[in-house]
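Sodium:solute symporter family protein, pasting as requested.
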Amino acid sequence: MNSLDWAVLIGYFGVMVAIGLWSHKRIDDVGDFFTAGGRMPWWLSGISHHMSGYSAVMFTGYAGIAYTYGITSYVTWSFPIAIGIAIGAKLFAPRLNRLRSRLGVASPLEYLKNRYDLRTQQALAWSGVLLKIVDVGAKWAAIATLLSVFTGISLNQGILITGVITGIYCTVGGLWADALTELGQFIIQFFAGIAMLVAVLAELGGFSALWTVWDRPELQGHAEPTAGPYTLTFLLAYLFIKTFEYNGGMWNQAQRYMATPNARAATRSAWLSSVLWLIWPLVLFFPMWVAPLLVTPEKPDASDSYALMTEQLLPHGLLGLVIVGFFSHTMAMCSSDANAIAAVFTRDIMPVLSKAARSWTHRAGLIAARWSTVAFLALSMAIATQVNSPTFKDIITVVIKWVAGLMGPIAIPFMLGMLRAFRRSGPTAALVSWAAGLFAFWLTNYGLDGIELQIQIVSPVATSLVLYVLIGYLKPEDTPERDAVLEQINTEAPDTAPAPAVQPRG
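Structure tokens follow.
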């Protein structure tokens, strides 16, 4: 990097902070901070939903998979996400919106207290918060790894820089700042991705390289849809998991649907995000697929291949723009996760831990929300410094194994609890399925040796799903009160009434 690249990067950080400060004017209470007051346009929600779904791990961990296996990286990653979001456009998006517009909640998990009971809400809240600290820690480590390739600064310095900048704008401006910065980040990533694609095509002989390079010896097997450990079984397992995760199972995407004015807007938001997941990763992945023709990675897992390629092919200025693109994805995901976790901690956990929190004023709740965001970011940054330790192994292990494996037991009671078909599943089904899913994760990842990757990933969510449904039929716990909650979430009548105001917990 030279002074021009640094100017682009510093200018980007400055714009992000400015957006956060501008968004601060739109935040009056916790409803504004966590759900944008239900005033977010569907198109902004859709772009925000898309951008908050992936990070610089794509340019490190998945770049390594693309370097080794080719288009498998798309077929077994972004393609199933696009299909999963499309499935959820009608199934989950409108119901998540009604959590806010009908029930008046600010946190995705607030409804669980009435849908199940307090124990279930707390179990899902605490386990989800702990998982997200590890997940976001992996994202910080990914962007710091890229930053170290370009600038030579240490991993910890990179974590500190990106974490502090993200903390400023998302703490000050809440979900509005997240969504608006994600819009800007999408625009930046669009130009950066196109620049990288054009540079690679020029190096390989022009536009025709899109279809002529695949018979080169260096790309042998790169055109196979599934390869290595990423088999058809893995693809189906990943589709199953991502349908829950990217439709709100990890909470930050749920907030995008909750932030739209009504259920119809939430559905349109989901369709837009699905289309973006189907098309845009193709532009980003092609340079990674053909990287063996252009660079020799220094790391065994080839996670540095994309960074090395940008250094080799792009002039200064454009190099800075691509680096900004790396930051944009990571900061989008981490800030959205921070907001979601702060919502759960402030609205669901603190009122149980502290009697004073149950009677917070709007101002006190907003202050608590901001401090919760800061605390989450600090903890995740601390975890990031340990992401390559023997406990976590490497970045891609954390993202694929830990998140995909542990997400299911948390998401199953939360997501399926909104559907009438599972009205018989109550607190017992929710808690047993959650606990058994966590045990299945430990057993397949650490208790037994030689378990295939797809089994490790799918076992926890499959265990939770089977037990949730089975216990619901064997021990039905539906009550008139729980049915009333489901009725509000599932009724498809037009949302003509204004959304109830988000009140302090009490």
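Note for the archive: Residues 496-506 have pLDDT under 50 and may be disordered.
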